[in-house]
């Protein structure tokens, strides 16, 4: 007679297996909750630490203009001819630039600007935009807010690498804004070689040249308190004045913008910029966190200086101001999504 024997099935074994299964499910549930909470928390951090201060200052300018009717021409000239040149000179002189690395970052940023210029020109040709409308679209897409928006955001999202790279991006943007950007703005009113003349009258361009000479010959301007202390005050005052000026400019904006043209400006700036940056990173030797920082940097909203230049040279300034305002609002969502996406391990592995 054959007998069949099997190992005893005890209650303790069943409990162990059930306990392990429950522990695994609980761990997965906790991880799911953490993932669900992480995205809103990141959104809140970016909004409260970067965008909310910007919007508050813009709001101050809006309210002050509504109550006091400020002179926008005076505010614009204070920005372009005093505060911006002082900021550029201070940044270039005090930054610890490393020539080889800085050159790569600057060439990368210049390539993004050139690509935005060509893409905007293509869209303008397809839709038959006038010259002024084309220049407005190019100004709104080429130059992005690398300073009072980019620097604090990089310090928040990428504290180790972000601020270092962003200084070089900011320097390139400032140089190009007051050369190429100024030419595009002034060319709506003047044709040919005469459109180049305003570039040589801009204090910001000479501020860059003077700062490079100071660094080249190691002139100790930081020890000249009679000069450096006023420059330091102007350097720290630019962000507030520029944003208040933007608020006043938005307060005076009355005409309705074409939704289609504004949508193209926001789409090219907020999505085209990071898309092109992702394709160019490998060509310029950026990998890992360096590549991620450069992609996020190219996703920033339209720079305030473009609205100032457009107003100064009558290059569709109301469209430029609208592009700055709405791209800044939209970037609260788009930049946060891009940062979150670039933190996914599978995406990071691609760079």
Mean pLDDT across residues:
81
Q: How many β-strand runs? A: 0
Which class in CATH terms? Answer: Mainly Alpha
Q: What is the H/E order?
A: HHHHHHHHHHHHHH
Give the strand content.
under 5%
Task: Count every helix, treating DSSP H or I runs of 4 or more residues as helices.
Answer: 14
Tally of individual domains: 1
Q: So what's the overall shape?
A: globular
* Share of helix, binned: over 70%
Q: And the CATH topology?
A: Na+/H+ antiporter like fold
Major sheet size, sense and barrel closure: none
Oligomeric status of the shown chains?
single chain
Tell me what you see in this structure.
The chain is mainly alpha-helical and 351 residues long. It is 77% helix and 0% strand. The protein has helices spanning 11-68, 72-94, 99-127, 131-142, 150-157, 162-186, 197-200, 203-217, 225-252, 259-280, 289-297, 304-312, 317-341, 345-348. The longest helix is centred in the first third of the chain and has 58 residues, at 11-68. The N and C termini lie far apart (69 Å). 42% of the residues are buried.
